[in-house]
Structure prediction request, 242 residues.
Amino acid sequence: MQNPTVGSDFSRNQQRLSGRAEMNPYEPELGSLPNGDRDEEAVNKTGTTTIGIATENSVVIATDMRASLGGRFVSNKNVQKVEQIHPTAALTLVGSVGGAQSFIRTLRAEVNLYEARRGEDMSMKALSTLAGNFARGGPFLAINPILGGIDDDGSHVYSIDPAGGVMKDDYTITGSGLTVAYGTLEDRYEEDMSIDEAKKAAGAGIKAAAERDTGSGNGIYVATVTEDGVDITDYGLDELDV
Prediction:
């Protein structure tokens, strides 16, 4: 004789309940995270070329201005891809726009909280470590920013990779146009560069990348970081005397 409950909602409920009987009622149940599927073609990405150069008493950070959809359509021609996150430090936006903006807001909040609690500015070593920890553990969608700043130990430039790696160097480049920009900067970089020379070298690197990389272009933002603070200025691709 056929069981009328087979295949019904009632029988499925019985199966679920019988499975629960074998579980420890005091053991917490583990949920599941969303599968993370998203339409990458519809995600705003900066594509980008960003350059950071440390001089003796300053840091120069330069970025292009272009954002794109899926790397094929220019969705915005005037994106400011470098932001002040500390009284004497700035960070670039690389990767998805939303993820990079969230990353900057999170870091800025932590820096403000640190200053309020301790009454002093966070060092660049501590800030770079914090940025690496956030990049590794947060939902920031494969960002690869540059952090540049000044503290009592001098000027510092770091690249932060998506896995949370923190690498300090005299100069660094991230983004889709880095291969072209590195060739230009390698030829121009000198250890005793002035701020103006560093700005020209960084501008030349951004301009070179814009010539070949479809994710970079439309202009240059330059952040100059000194012990007095952070100044961010925009330029046309040909405005800097390079």
Q: What stands out?
A: The radius of gyration is 24 Å. The helical segments are 9-21, 97-118, 124-137, 178-188, 195-212. The domain at 44-235 is CATH 3.60.20.10 (Glutamine Phosphoribosylpyrophosphate, subunit 1, domain 1).
